[in-house]
Amino acid sequence: MTLRFLVADCEPPDARAKRRASVGASAGESYASLLRRIAPGSTAEMALPADQGADVPDPAALAGYDAVILTGSPLHLYEATAAARREVAFMQDVFRSGTPSFGSCAGLQVAVVAAGGTVKPLDAPREAGFARRIWPTHAGRDHPLLRGRPPAFDAPAVHGDEVDRLPPGATHLAQNLNTTVQAAEIRHEGGVFWGVQYHPELSLAEVAAALRRDADTLLEDGLAPDEDALHAHADLVDALGREPDRLDLMWRLGVDAQVADDQLRQTEVRNFIAHLVEPTRARRRD
């Protein structure tokens, strides 16, 4: 099935440039490439809702897409910056359009705020590299977003903010000891959003690059004793991305195939397409 995606790159311009310098693509560009691989023949157009003066679709135009994807971003949704306000306004239009939407990390946070919830700085140490031992809530056990995930799993994650309060119409789907809301469904003004705090879309090379980009912050937070140790850890993540069957690397990193295997790592994105996007498109065409 040929699908039409709109990827909303929520990074501001400086963050997009920094990410391109480290991995060759912005968050939105990486997401678009993944969507085209998962759904061959599909299109993935780009929008820049954080940018001042950017031409973003209105609700009528958004209704013409099969799905909208919101990427991660370093913006803090509890700070009333102009960029944050633009992203929230865009997401409110996505809800009004009725088009299925998905977001990871800050993408989840944007949807939470757009629907009336709140976001705050993470109380626990930031999750960097991987979110550990995520488990579904009672509601999440049977939710199609998490279909195929085991009772507890790890996933790529890089964040220092978290959902404080879910909005009305939201269902809490997953959590771990570090972050209360790791996954949620939000129904608001006729729209349905599925989102996760972690990053199922990231390759392990991108995870390693994020660790290196954020080295100063991670050292300040005490997540590594020194820069050499941090880079050595990033090198192991990189190596596992190149050789995902290496049991010794999985053992050293404390992960399993849920992280090492591309398709398993991308579970939530694949489930979103299979269990929300495609059925919604079929209903719209009937």
Quick structural summary:
This protein is α/β, with parallel strands linked by helices. It has helices at 13-23, 27-38, 59-62, 82-97, 106-114, 138-141, 204-213, 215-220, 227-242, 247-253, 257-260, 262-265, 267-285; strands at 4-8, 43-47, 67-70, 101-104, 118-121, 127-136, 153-159, 161-165, 170-175, 183-188, 191-196.
Fold and architecture overview:
This protein is an alpha/beta fold and 286 residues long. It has two domains: 4-203 and 262-285, 3-Layer(aba) Sandwich (Rossmann fold), CATH 3.40.50.880; 204-258, no CATH class. Helix content is 43%, strand content 22%. The chain has 13 helices and eleven strands. The chain has helices at residues 13-23, 27-38, 59-62, 82-97, 106-114, 138-141, 204-213, 215-220, 227-242, 247-253, 257-260, 262-265, 267-285, and strands spanning 4-8, 43-47, 67-70, 101-104, 118-121, 127-136, 153-159, 161-165, 170-175, 183-188, 191-196. Strands 2-1-3-4-11-10-9-6-7 form a nine-stranded mixed sheet, with helices on both faces. The chain has a two-stranded antiparallel sheet with strand order 5-8. Strand 9 and strand 10 form a beta hairpin. Helix 7 runs antiparallel to helix 9 (227-242). It is globular. It starts with a strand and ends with a helix.
